[in-house]
Every structure is written in C-alpha cells, then in structure tokens.
Amino acid sequence: MWPKRISILGVGLLGGSIGLAARKFLSACEIVGYGHRPATLQAALARGAVDTVESNAAAAVAGADLVILCTPVGLFDRIIQEISPVLSATAVVTDVGSTKRSVVELAGKHLEHPERFVGSHPMAGGEVRGVEFARADLFQEAVCITTPIAQTDTQVLAKVEQFWGKLGLRLTRLSPQDHDRLIGEISHVPHAVAAALVAMQDDAALPLCGKGFLDATRIAAGDGGLWRDIFMDNQDNLRVGIGRLMGELSQLLARMENGDAEKVMAWLDAAAARRAALVKSK
Fold first, then answer.
1. Against a cut of 0.90, is the pTM above it?
2. Domains contained in the chain, CATH given
3. Residues 6 or more apart from 204 whose CB is under 8 A from it?
4. Which of 16, 46, 147, 272 would be 176's cystine partner, CB 3.0–4.6 Å?
5. Is the CB of residue 180 less than 8 Å from the CB of residue 73?
6. What is the CA angle 143-148-149, rounded to 5?
7. pLDDT given for residue 266 in this prediction
C-alpha cells in the first residue's frame, strides 16, 4: 500500500482537503501536517485532516513516502531547501502550486533526486482560505494537471497520478511552460480582472451592485499574498494575457464608437455561445 506516510506542507484549504480526502478514499496511512501557525496546526488536528503536526518542515518530511507542497508558491524555494537533506531516497515530492516552471526548476536545483519530483496542479479551491473550509470532496471531478519533464521518473509519475485519481481528480498532462501559459489565461488573468472590476468602482456604485457583479468578482476575495506570489511568478504570461484582453475590449470600444450595433451583438453572442459550449462540456 502506497503511500503509508504523507507529509502535507501547509495545512490550509488545499492541504487540509488533501488530508481529509486521503483519510476517506485511501487505505489507512499516516498524515503529518506542517505549518508555522500553531492555531492552524491545532485546527487541522481538530478537523481530522492530519494525525500529527510539526512546525519544522524537515521534521515533517522525515520518513515520508509522499511529500506535498501546499504553501504559497513564494515559499517553495525555502521549503525545498529545508527538506532536501532529510528526504528519504525513495520519497516522492509533488505540489499544488498554480505555477509550474519555477517549482520544477527549484526541484532540479535543490533536490538530491529531482527525478522523483512531479509538478501537480489540482484545479480546485476557492476564494476562501483556511483549514476550517477544507472538505474531503473538494477534488471530486476536478482537473489535476501534472507537468512531467524528460528527467521525471515514469514510475513516480504514475504513482502521483494514481494518488490524485484516488482523491477524485481527472488527470491531464502539460509541460511546465504550457501549464503556465494556459493557466495564466484561464485563471490568473480572470483573477486580475475580478480585482480590477472591484477597484474601478465609484464608492457610490458598490451599494447598488446585484448578483451579477458579485458573481463576476467572487474570486477577487482571494488572499492577496498568495495571488501576489502567483502574479509575480507568472508575470510574463500574465502580461501577454492582459494584453489580449485589452485587445478584445479595444475592439468592443471601436465597434461602439463606430455605432456598429450588429458587430457589438455578434461579439456578445459569440462569447455567450462559447461559454454555453464550455458549460455543456463540464
């Protein structure tokens, strides 16, 4: 049975949900949680997301079969360096970060066995944070992207994908480069747009908002520190995506300024049809 011992580094929403899901969907295994806030660690214990806790990352990974990085991506460099000297030669390391090029590079730079690292990105979560919102079914039918490279051990990759599959995720593979480009457009740009929509409002307009505005800006409630790290790490792709968005809005402005109502409607209908097809495919 694998894994027998899981180390979850960062027991917030995703880390806590992994612990709860592992408890529900896997055979019995020991789950160790790491974090730097005692209150968070105690909450993870109280929720049953972990069996034991450590405030030291190196201690948390001792003897682990599977190590999962669940902290903000800005902390990956420090944590990978801390755990590298004490990892078992057979330990498998993965992560849940929203960017992949940098963590793959860090694994190659700092891990003694970088071939046993597999970048992962479960496309699950939300604007809430904290282990109190963790739930065992968070990953059901969500997509998980793995980002193997040429040096990745194929047996390790199979183990990681099997693990995510048991938690209810649907697996797909991308290169780290393609992941960051595509997720930049489908996830990172929308977050920037949601934040900008809130920021642009006149104070007098906000009390008038309806459900549509709240739906469109829901993700703007996400943690600023976490999203700062994502934006900075993937800034090249984010800049390109924002440029493409501005191009679409510029086309809309031009059509309105030209009084071309038919082209405005065609632009709106095309977007509506594309979204309807997306919803139907889910």
1. yes
2. 5-175 (3.40.50.720), 179-281 (1.10.3660.10)
3. none
4. 147
5. no
6. 150
7. 97
